[in-house]
Write a structure and sequence with these properties.
The protein is built from 13 helices and 12 strands. By secondary structure, the protein is of the alpha/beta class. The strands form 2 sheets. It has a 7-stranded parallel beta sheet with strand order 8-7-6-9-10-11-12, sandwiched between helices. Strands 3-2-1-4-5 form a 5-stranded parallel beta sheet, with helices on both faces. The termini are far apart.
């Protein structure tokens, strides 16, 4: 792509900039960390700006791969408008948002000096059946930018946890198809408490009724119910200092991996091979094989419903025995349990 002279002149007063578009959710941000770090290493003299929802700014900066966040968000997983970009055209623009023309065109409208996107004529082929981390690292490698899919850990957040050492249970999910029934979460919570573990429940905005229902069924005290959505840094601290995270296929599962916290994640419509944690004995992905379902459906996926409470409780207790045995944190080593 050619650069107009006026653009080149205007850049002389600004540091060279790389603008990366990944205006998605928490899990998407964390799954994109290896690619972001690859970009950071490839452009050491550039200012790396990430276009993403502003609520995730703190976590984005904590990756060490991003210098600034450009607020950008749109409903669902659609492409946000970027025309409020305040600076000269970026020297490099990178589309980590998707593989279609919409995200490519949103970046192209800013007239970057160079545009890297799947939908560009020189873009690498889309790896639709690859894990999200591997897919975007392979995309960068297609442009000669090395990136390590396992380079995903976050430093401790430096914020006190509201419940250090507790088992964190997150029953919610953005879509009903990825939401295991609340009564089953409650049954597992009762089992964990009977084994002597403190359990706290979390829930995002709009999940207050679900969290309260699980708490009531499980007999949890009010102090162990953290509904309504914690601030990102406090949520990060909670997961970082937890003994275990139990959740569905949500952003918190990625946060547990990023902090090296043991986790049990329940998958339904989407295989953990696409969105699950990297191979490690500290992260159990429970899943029943079958045809792929709708990750944005309204009702629990049939594969998710085939996961029983005894199976989940046993997986949690097995990992918690390792914690009590003094083997809480190690580097990346997931077992996909079918």
């Amino acid at each position: 792509m050619s650069v107009r002279r006026s653009d080149a002149v205007s850049r002389t007063a600004h540091p060279p900039t790389v603008l990366v578009l990944r205006a998605l959710g928490l899990g998407d941000l964390l799954a994109g960390v290896p690619a972001l770090r690859g970009i950071r290493r490839a452009f050491p003299g550039h200012r790396v700006v990430l276009a993403q929802p502003p609520g995730l700014t703190g976590l984005a900066l904590a990756t060490g791969a991003v210098d600034a966040v450009f607020p950008a968000e749109a409903p669902g997983r659609t492409v946000p408008d970027l025309t409020h970009w305040p600076d000269p055209p970026p020297d490099v623009a990178v589309d980590l948002h998707g593989n279609g023309p919409e995200s490519r065109d949103a970046l192209a409208a800013l007239h970057p000096g160079r545009l890297l996107a799947h939908a560009c004529p020189d873009g690498p082929p889309w790896r639709g059946h690859a894990n999200e981390r591997d897919r975007w690292c392979a995309f960068l490698c297609g442009y000669g930018i090395p990136a390590d899919p396992l380079d995903l850990r976050l430093p401790p957040p430096g914020t006190p946890s509201p419940a250090p050492g507790a088992v964190v249970v997150h029953p919610g999910a953005a879509a009903g198809s990825r939401r295991w029934p609340g009564e089953r979460f409650a049954a597992v919570v009762r089992c964990l408490r009977a084994a002597g573990h403190r359990v706290v429940l979390t829930g995002g905005p709009g999940e207050e009724a679900l969290v309260r229902s699980v708490a009531e069924r499980a007999g949890l005290p009010v102090r162990d119910v953290l509904a309504g959505g914690l601030p990102p840094r406090q949520l990060s601290a909670l997961v970082a200092e937890a003994s275990l995270l139990l959740s569905g296929d949500t952003g918190l599962a990625h946060l547990a991996v990023a902090h090296g916290t043991r986790s049990v994640t329940l998958f339904g419509p989407v295989s953990p091979r696409l969105w699950g944690p990297p191979p490690s004995r500290h992260h159990l992905a429970l899943w029943k094989p079958g045809p792929p379902g709708d990750p944005h459906g309204r009702t629990p996926d049939a594969r998710l419903l085939r996961i029983g409470t005894r199976e989940v409780a046993a997986a949690c207790l097995a990992l918690l025995r390792d914690v009590r045995g003094g083997h809480r944190r190690t580097g990346p080593e997931v077992a996909h349990v079918h």
